[in-house]
């Protein structure tokens, strides 16, 4: 049964990793619904947040193949219940609609959005929320003629309390860099 | 070995690093964008041998052959553009077959990257899906660390191919200071997972209480060097052993516990035992589809113990009962400490019955044919007898590969070099060349079909130029035999455009100054092969074999491993 799964991947900050990771998905004909990449707070470590719609088995198989890449430190797999996600959306609306009536201001206020910028001809509204919320707001704004719209990829915070450093330490303990005999 | 040098060029730094890594042979082809490297090569010609191939694909397959027999990383060195892209087939082959190779490709100067310069290709992009790791060096100060990492990554954990692209300006740049040290660790890479003691205990318990255990050895046994540990386990607990194709020679064929090869064209006993054993001990194998047949009917009755170094292979195709994610030798040493002595006489007798069945239905046709023409099986069999099963056998891809896998007796370890996962035709001749650059004592025999031979036969020039003692046995049936067999089994034996109008292969060998002989009659076979073996230097033996010589038994698509075909299915008229 297909469900939404999100990968949180920590990697070295090297050129080419985006390509290496994305081909793991495309090879299996899995569509990436959202991909966000940015620097983490740890020096030299980069993050990728990738959301797909697939079966649990396939997702776990993908996770192992991602983590196997030399420059991937750790790859986590989450279903929707284990994460909190947000995305940012920007909406550009022509100014004439504001001056004509006040309902757009009420709309902005009631939907926890805010005005990011006001120019002579347009204003830019920003809304943070989950996918459904930013989509709903877009639909509410449509009568006001949205000139331009963009949505960011999603970012996530995970529910489990174990820190990345702890996961990385486990990896060091459970694995060796050289072949070692234990007996 | 650490190095500390001053004022050397990038090209020199490359050689210093390669030699520090123990490289003594490079298979290569010079070009415009690796000229500085080749210029430096001259200064190192006494320390590092250069083998000029005839096509870059030959260089990468040779690196593979070298790696397979030496257990070191094979190295090839080519120029940019078409030189680099010609490596891709071999790199993909090395990835699927876990072979450690380091491919050095020249590249245009860094300012023109991305401007469609002469002989420029994005080889890092192109090779990304088929390499374990790759990197582009644009500054000479990256050389030391990159080469150290390349060798560490290629040879550690599950081995694989690494490609390093070096821009021409990096090759020419002068380095004030060159410090080299081998790579000991990469923080994001954990090649040797430690075995979990709980899983070790469970595996030991399953093995000790098994009534019908079966060991399947894969290439992992050879890669890990765990032959002694496997032998100790098999003998102490009296467990029959079968091999995947890439695991051939991991366990001696002549041993009384050895049952043969599993899978698509394997022997009857191993396949039947797979679907009737109670404990399946999978050592260094990945349950490839050529081995399993249909997965929903594969070893469903058995508890499966899987010892495997690559965590992505565990539970990928086949669900395991106990998975030990570790190097095989490391794990087996722990397991063997607790294995009890045991006997499985009835189980072994059961296996023997299948051997007798196969002997009657298949061996008799393959080895003791009364037809006029030679069979591939009998050529392989005589080869085996006359070399005492001790040669290194390098095969190409097709029916001859299956016949040689089945009918050569692998009595020494590390004796089988073939393209398994990718099934690359044309692999054998250059791979045999690579093997010959390392192995000086054992015979190296390349068994090739007429289709595959024509894909890389130009590499005969390398045998000639370097007088390499590779013996080439060409099994010629003027056909793409394996494809024809597949048509016979799955379709209606219509013309599938696979009939080859071949040149006079012996004349081609002679043109390369290689002595040749054509054998087509049974009574000449032994003498012809003996003459080849006794000859000092390269030799070409063409064996004319029967036009139709389909390899059986066969597990057709959609069948379980124990539902083998012994002959072509009868067509309904």
Characteristics:
heterodimer, A: 183 residues, alpha+beta, Alpha-Beta Plaits, 2 domains, five-stranded antiparallel beta sheet, four-stranded antiparallel beta sheet, 6 helices, elongated, B: 573 residues, alpha/beta, Rossmann fold, 3 domains, six-stranded parallel beta sheet, 23 helices, 21 strands, 38% helix, 18% strand, globular
Any chance you could write out the topology, listing elements then pairs?
The complex is a heterodimer of chains A (183) and B (573).
Chain A: E1 3-12, H1 17-26, E2 32-39, E3 45-54, H2 56-67, E4 72-79, E5 83-94, H3 96-100, H4 103-110, E6 113-118, E7 122-129, H5 131-141, E8 146-151, E9 155-158, H6 164-174, E10 175-176
Antiparallel strand pairs in A: 1-3, 1-4, 2-3, 5-7, 5-8, 5-9, 6-7
Chain B: E1 3-9, H1 10-20, E2 25-28, H2 35-41, E3 49-52, H3 56-70, E4 74-78, H4 82-85, H5 88-96, E5 101-107, H6 123-127, E6 133-137, H7 143-155, E7 161-167, H8 168-172, E8 174-180, E9 192-193, H9 197-209, E10 213-217, H10 219-224, H11 227-236, E11 241-243, E12 258-261, H12 268-274, E13 279-283, H13 289-292, E14 303-308, E15 322-325, H14 328-336, H15 345-367, H16 376-386, E16 392-395, H17 399-407, E17 416-417, H18 428-438, E18 444-449, H19 450-456, H20 460-466, E19 470-476, H21 481-490, H22 505-511, E20 516-519, H23 522-534, E21 539-544
Parallel strand pairs in B: 2-3, 2-4, 4-5, 5-7, 6-7, 10-11, 10-13, 11-12, 13-14, 14-15, 16-17, 16-18, 18-19, 19-21, 20-21
Antiparallel strand pairs in B: 1-8
Description of the structure:
The complex is a heterodimer of chains A (about 180) and B (about 575). Chain A has helices spanning about 15-25, 55-65, 95-100, 105-110, 130-140, 165-175, and strands at about 5-10, 30-40, 45-55, 70-80, 85-95, 115-120, 120-130, 145-150, 155-160, 175. Chain A folds into two domains: about 5-80 and about 155-175, Alpha-Beta Plaits; about 85-155, Alpha-Beta Plaits, CATH 3.30.70. Chain A is elongated. Chain A is an alpha+beta fold and about 180 residues long. Chain A has six helices and ten strands. The relative contact order of chain A is 0.18. The termini of chain A are far apart. Chain B has three domains: about 5-180, Thiamin diphosphate (ThDP)-binding fold, Pyr/PP domains (Rossmann fold), CATH 3.40.50.970; about 195-350, TPP-binding domain (Rossmann fold); about 370-545, Rossmann fold (3-Layer(aba) Sandwich). Chain B has a six-stranded parallel β-sheet, sandwiched between helices. In chain B, strands 12-11-10-13-14-15 form a six-stranded parallel β-sheet, sandwiched between helices. Chain B starts with a strand and ends in a 29-residue tail after the last strand. The model of chain B has no long low-confidence stretch (mean pLDDT about 95). The interface between A and B is medium-sized, with 28 and 31 residues.
């Amino acid at each position: 049964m297909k469900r939404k799964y999100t990968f949180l991947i920590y990697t070295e900050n090297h050129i080419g990793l985006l390509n290496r990771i994305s081909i793991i998905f495309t090879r299996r004909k899995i569509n990436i619904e959202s991909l966000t990449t940015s620097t983490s707070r740890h020096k030299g470590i980069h993050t990728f947040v990738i959301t797909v719609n697939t079966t649990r088995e396939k997702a776990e198989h993908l996770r192992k193949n991602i983590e196997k890449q030399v420059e991937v430190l750790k790859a986590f797999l989450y279903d929707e219940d284990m994460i909190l996600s947000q995305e940012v959306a920007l909406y550009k609306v022509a100014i004439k609609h504001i001056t004509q009536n006040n309902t757009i201001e009420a709309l902005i206020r009631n939907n926890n959005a805010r005005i990011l910028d006001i120019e002579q001809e347009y204003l830019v509204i920003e809304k943070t929320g989950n996918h459904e919320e930013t989509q709903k707001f877009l639909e509410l704004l449509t009568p006001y003629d949205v000139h331009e719209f963009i949505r960011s990829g999603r970012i996530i915070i995970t529910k489990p309390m174990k820190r990345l450093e702890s996961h990385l330490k486990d990896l060091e303990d459970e694995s060796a860099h050289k072949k070692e005999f234990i007996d | 070995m650490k190095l500390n040098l001053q004022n050397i060029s990038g090209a020199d730094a490359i050689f210093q690093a390669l030699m520090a890594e123990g490289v003594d042979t490079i298979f290569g082809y010079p070009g415009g964008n690796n000229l500085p490297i080749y210029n430096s090569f001259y200064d190192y010609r006494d320390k590092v041998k250069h083998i000029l191939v005839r096509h870059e694909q030959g260089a990468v397959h040779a690196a593979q052959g070298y790696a397979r027999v030496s257990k070191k990383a094979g190295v090839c060195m080519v120029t940019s553009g078409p030189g680099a892209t010609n490596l891709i087939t071999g790199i993909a082959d090395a990835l699927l077959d876990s072979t450690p190779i380091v491919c050095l490709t020249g590249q245009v100067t860094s300012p023109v990257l991305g401007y469609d310069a002469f002989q420029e290709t994005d080889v890092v992009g192109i090779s990304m899906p088929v390499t374990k790791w790759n990197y582009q060096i644009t500054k000479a100060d990256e050389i030391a660390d990159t080469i150290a990492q390349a060798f560490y990554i290629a040879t550690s954990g599950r081995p694989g191919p690494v490609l390093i692209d070096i821009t021409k300006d990096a090759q020419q740049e002068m380095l004030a200071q060159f410090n080299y040290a081998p790579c000991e660790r990469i923080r994001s890479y954990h090649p040797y997972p430690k075995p979990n003691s709980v899983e070790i205990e469970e595996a030991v318990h399953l093995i000790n209480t098994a009534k019908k255990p079966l060991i399947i050895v894969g290439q992992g046994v050879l890669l890990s060097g765990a032959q002694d540990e496997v032998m100790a386990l098999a003998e102490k607990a009296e467990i029959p052993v079968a091999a995947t194709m890439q695991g051939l020679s991991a366990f001696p064929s002549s041993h009384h516990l050895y049952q043969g090869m599993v899978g698509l064209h394997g022997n009857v006993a191993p396949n039947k035992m797979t679907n009737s054993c109670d404990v399946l001990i999978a050592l260094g194998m990945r349950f490839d589809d050529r081995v399993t047949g249909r997965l929903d009917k594969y070893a469903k009755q058995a508890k499966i113990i899987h010892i495997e170094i690559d965590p992505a292979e565990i539970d990928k195709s086949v669900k395991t009962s106990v998975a030990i994610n570790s190097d095989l030798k490391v794990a087996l040493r722990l397991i063997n400490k607790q294995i009890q002595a045991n006997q499985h006489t009835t189980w072994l007798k059961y296996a023997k019955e299948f051997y007798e069945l196969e002997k009657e239905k298949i061996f008799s046709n393959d080895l003791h044919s009364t037809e006029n023409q030679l069979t591939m099986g009998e050529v392989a069999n005589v080869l085996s007898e006359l070399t005492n099963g001790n040669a290194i056998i390098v095969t190409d891809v097709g029916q001859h590969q299956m016949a040689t896998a089945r009918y050569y007796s692998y009595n020494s370890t590390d004796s089988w070099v073939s393209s398994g996962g990718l099934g690359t035709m044309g692999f054998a001749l250059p791979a045999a060349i690579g093997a010959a650059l390392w192995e000086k004592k054992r015979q190296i025999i390349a068994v090739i079909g007429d289709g595959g031979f024509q894909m890389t036969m130009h590499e005969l020039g390398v045998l000639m130029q370097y007088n390499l003692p590779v013996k080439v046995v060409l099994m010629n049936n003027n056909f793409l035999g394996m494809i024809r067999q597949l048509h016979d089994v799955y379709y209606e034996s219509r013309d599938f455009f696979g009939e080859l109008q071949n040149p006079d292969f012996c004349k081609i060998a002679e043109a390369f100054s290689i002595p040749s002989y054509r054998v087509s009659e049974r009574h000449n076979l032994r003498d012809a092969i003996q003459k080849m073996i006794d000859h000092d230097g390269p030799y070409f033996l063409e064996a004319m074999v029967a036009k139709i010589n389909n390899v059986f038994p066969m597990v057709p698509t959609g069948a379980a491993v124990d539902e083998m075909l012994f002959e072509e299915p009868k067509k309904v008229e």
